[in-house]
Amino acid sequence: MGWFSKLRSPWLCRASVAVWRLFTELDLSEAKPRRYASLHEVFTRELLPGARPLDPDPRTLISPCDAIVGTCGTVQAGSVLQAKGSPYALAELFGRSDRAAPFEGGSYVTLRLTSAMYHRFHAPHDGRVEHVTYISGDTWNVNPVALARVQRLFCRNERAVIRLRLVDGTPLALVPVAAILVASIRLHFLDVLLHLRWRGPNEMPCDAPVHKGQELGWFEHGSTIIVFAPPGVGLAPGITPGHRIRMGEPLLHLPQGPQRLPRH
Prior knowledge:
It is a single chain. By secondary structure, the chain is an alpha+beta fold. The protein contains 7 helices and 17 strands.
């Protein structure tokens, strides 16, 4: 599918989009006007300026992407839910237990991108990207049926653990998880395309300043981003399983007043 999507043929692209629309709610009205030469260009399309207004509240962490909210809640005993009755360990997802420690007792939100959605993802708040861990793996489908049947699916799939620190010192983690047809993740602040044939180095320290709403990268099709925040950062009102959210809308709320969290 990756090979097919990059075939440059406007007529083939138009025909493929017509078939695609028979099965999905693909909407290109908010995309920058252009003639698409390949399906890849459709998948990774940019939006018109202002198509995703950013919540201006400085205490709000915005959704990094368009998505459907999956499981969400509190990290308990180092575990979160993939689906009802199906937990997985943060240490396994992150690759190391010490990197999961700052989020014990904190909040998490699973954001599922469908194939027809806008596939770029953005910074939830002002801060710096401090480190990326790339973990190669499988490409299981991440739809609700697969999540209910395949144990620890997110820990088995290819993923990148993006660790950020907000300007007030609050740690944050975004974990883009690849899936079927989505075996590549592009991050703008690293000059590399992460995919199953790329073997490392897996640990990539960096120091990239980002601002709220800044584009961080994209999936080549559609998949999942899991957002982790430390204790004191709560879910925004309305963030419940099944809720449709757009990039720029409130996802999490920082606590009132100054807060300095210890570095890990």
